């Protein structure tokens, strides 16, 4: 089975699932986030009479929407919450984390994802990161474009091939995007319009094969070329993070590039001015500690947010 490899970065934890040297899937977590499977001590802070849903407040003051509340429990009761979905930031609002109430402590309060490595092989995380940043994956004859909305993640297919051929050759890229970008929830795929039922059936069969090991439910391709997929939503996808915190994502990426620079001297990190504003002092101090080098930050407004320059220069 492919294994998850974990890179504990500065300001984020990155995970890649590798099979025969190829990236199968990716995940990203930030410090302090609740993750699916985690158990936390909580107090029931709100519950309507007769309902099995309510709001729990964790010890750090964070609120979690909870379900499966027993009938005898009342506001103020103490217990534990098993997280079933992490909080998700959206434009203008925050969807609170969701969990399941239990009065018993669970044995695994903080699940582990895989094996920790010092660093990923060069280029692996960069490939996923840049693909998620652009929301695009290319293939011979076209590309898919992924974007997030409050209702669903939408995948559009663009290319100059005949409609049936374009739809079929796009499916491996779609399957890759779903796993690379850690997409869940409601997903809409806009295929080229195919009038013939045999063509639509061919696309359905190819999609079924490509997603056979990816848990989901989906509709058949309709006459307008649309397929809807519903998959378990565990937390923000990489696309969500770029949509709501692009500059912060770029700041973390810049620090990662600086950490990976090699040599003796001073780490010179050149970034866009907006990225410099997101470089937190504690993360820069951690960068100094990990590398054993002083860090100098310079800005260049001509740089793209996601194109930092990191090098080691003489003292």
Structural class call reads: alpha+beta
Number of strands: 20
What is the end-to-end distance?
47 Å
The low-pLDDT segments are: none
What is the C-alpha radius of gyration, as a whole number of Å?
A: 22 Å
Describe this structure in words.
Helix 2 runs parallel beside helix 3. The termini are far apart. A hairpin with a 2-residue loop joins strand 12 and strand 13 (142-148). The strands form five sheets. The protein has a six-stranded mixed sheet with strand order 12-13-14-15-17-16. The mean pLDDT is 93. Helix content is 26%, strand content 35%. It has three domains: 39-102, OB fold (Dihydrolipoamide Acetyltransferase, E2P), CATH 2.40.50; 135-236; 244-313, hypothetical protein PF0899 fold, CATH 3.30.2320. By secondary structure, it is of the alpha+beta class. The chain has helices at residues 124-134, 163-180, 197-210, 238-260, 273-276, 281-291, and strands spanning 3-8, 13-19, 22-29, 39-47, 54-58, 63-67, 78-85, 88-90, 93-95, 97-102, 115-117, 136-139, 142-148, 153-159, 185-190, 217-218, 226-231, 266-271, 295-299, 309-313.
Short overview:
The chain is of the alpha+beta class. It is built from 6 helices and 20 strands. The protein is flat and about 70 Å long.
Write the layout of secondary structure elements.
Blueprint: E1 3-8, E2 13-19, E3 22-29, E4 39-47, E5 54-58, E6 63-67, E7 78-85, E8 88-90, E9 93-95, E10 97-102, E11 115-117, H1 124-134, E12 136-139, E13 142-148, E14 153-159, H2 163-180, E15 185-190, H3 197-210, E16 217-218, E17 226-231, H4 238-260, E18 266-271, H5 273-276, H6 281-291, E19 295-299, E20 309-313
Parallel strand pairs: 1-11, 6-10, 14-15, 18-19
Antiparallel strand pairs: 1-2, 2-3, 4-5, 4-7, 5-6, 7-10, 8-9, 12-13, 13-14, 15-17, 16-17, 18-20
């Amino acid at each position: 089975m492919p294994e998850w490899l974990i890179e504990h970065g500065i300001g984020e934890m990155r995970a890649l699932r590798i099979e025969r040297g190829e990236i199968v899937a990716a995940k990203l977590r930030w410090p302090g986030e609740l993750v699916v499977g985690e158990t936390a001590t909580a107090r029931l802070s709100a519950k309507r009479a007769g309902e099995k849903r309510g709001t729990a407040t964790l010890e750090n003051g964070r609120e979690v929407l909870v379900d499966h509340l027993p009938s005898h429990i009342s506001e103020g009761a103490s217990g534990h919450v098993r997280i079933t979905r992490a909080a998700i930031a959206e434009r203008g609002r925050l969807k609170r984390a969701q969990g399941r109430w239990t009065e018993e402590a669970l044995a695994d309060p903080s699940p582990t994802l895989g094996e920790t490595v010092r660093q990923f092989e060069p280029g692996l995380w960069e490939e996923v990161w840049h693909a998620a940043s652009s929301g695009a994956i290319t293939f011979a004859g076209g590309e898919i474009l992924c974007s997030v909305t409050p209702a669903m993640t939408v995948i559009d297919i663009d290319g100059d091939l005949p409609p049936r051929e374009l739809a079929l050759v796009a499916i491996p890229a779609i399957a890759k995007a779903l796993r690379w970008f850690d997409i869940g929830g409601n997903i809409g795929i806009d295929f080229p319009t195919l009038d013939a039922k045999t063509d639509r059936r061919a696309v359905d069969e190819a999609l079924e094969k490509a997603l056979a090991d990816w848990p989901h439910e989906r509709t058949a391709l309709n006459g307008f070329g649309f397929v809807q997929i519903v998959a378990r939503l565990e937390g923000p996808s990489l696309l969500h993070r770029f949509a709501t915190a692009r500059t912060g994502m770029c700041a973390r990426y810049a620090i990662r590039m600086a950490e990976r620079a090699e040599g003796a001297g001073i780490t010179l990190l050149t970034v866009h001015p907006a990225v410099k504003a997101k470089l937190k002092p504690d993360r820069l101090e951690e960068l100094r500690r990990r590398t054993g080098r002083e860090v100098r930050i310079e800005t260049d407004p001509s740089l793209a947010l996601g194109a930092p320059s990191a090098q080691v220069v003489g003292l």
